[in-house]
Amino acid sequence: MSALSALKTLPSHPIAGGHRRRSSPFLSSLTNTSPTGHQLRSSAAISVSLSHSVIAPGRPVRAVSANVVSEEKQLEGSAFPVISREEALDLYEDMVLGRTFEDMCAQMYYRGKMFGFVHLYNGQEAVSTGFIRLLTKGDSVVSTYRDHVHALSKGVPAGAVMAELFGKAAGCCRGQGGSMHMFSREHNLIGGFAFIGEGIPVATGAAFSSKYRREVLKEACDDVTVAFFGDGTCNNGQFFECLNMAALWKLPIVFVVENNLWAIGMSHIRATSDPEIWKKGPPFGMPGVHVDGMDVLKVREVAKEAVGRARRGEGPTLVECETYRFRGHSLADPDELRNPAEKSRYTSRDPITALKKYAIEHGLVAESELKAIDKKIDNLVEEAVEFADSSPPPPRSQLLENVFADPKGFGIGPDGKYRCEDPGFTQGTAQV
Question: What domains, with CATH codes, occur in the chain?
């Protein structure tokens, strides 16, 4: 029996919306209204059991049934918390770290400490924390150009991330990646990607590697890959091609759509024929899930099941997290296109404030403990800035490293030294 078909119903966690709905945490349909008034979600819960239908003779296809879930766990209607005290503290600290770090990035950018485009994650912390804090060190994460917080959630030190943003040699990519290209082999962060969609094939390859190691090389490998990308990516070819490949080979991967409703200045509702992205999973033979991405507890419940399915060898899942960014597309964006009332509506559902309220009301933590975490994170981020600012820039000899597999003949001259160390290196480049 599929783990999905055996899943019971959990109550909706009312930390963000203030209401309770009887729904499965996996494949539940939450009633949300888009900025244009388009009703994105049905109020009925959708069963996660998988049924078989036939679209052509001899071609069975797995599809998600639309039966309303009737079974409930005893937690329905109860005030009993669904997370432990330790989990509450970990979730809160990780989310506060992401928010505080990004706020500091804005300050440093406007002070001229960072260059190029910098895209902040404010408002979307529940997605990163809800998924990544469940992963093991061996699991892989593939990100987008909005990748600082994904790196932090995966365990990359704040100092290494900040130094990378400053373009310093102490950065996690030695200052060569910058804001949109965070990478850490040690933490299995397989990169941020500047062009939308280009990280999805890389993530699919990482998931294939895990499956190959387990099934062909007979290694004890149950590593999972989580691929993050935005709603603007979901009309691109790589997205559909990789859904097909992942389902065909039952790869251990979770595709996470961070639907913040805007692709730069284009409304998601105007850009796609069917705004319900999660529906694109079942046609490829994988579950499609929608979850309130402003509620870290809901995201966490969905993530548990999706990651668990992948780890058990049951294949991929497509998860749409409906969230919202509190700042413009990048720090160069004046953010004048979005309706102020829309922004106000989402900022009132701040995922950090909601988790704080939930944890205190359920007696999991004291407010003084959360204030202590706030202070701890403030100090940590200040130290990260000091570390980055005092770190040396990359040496000139690093210019051609990691560009060619073997730089000899171009990067290294007959004398064995890097050509870029020659003061006349840039002269006559076309002839070289």
Answer: 83-390 (3.40.50.970), 404-432 (no CATH)
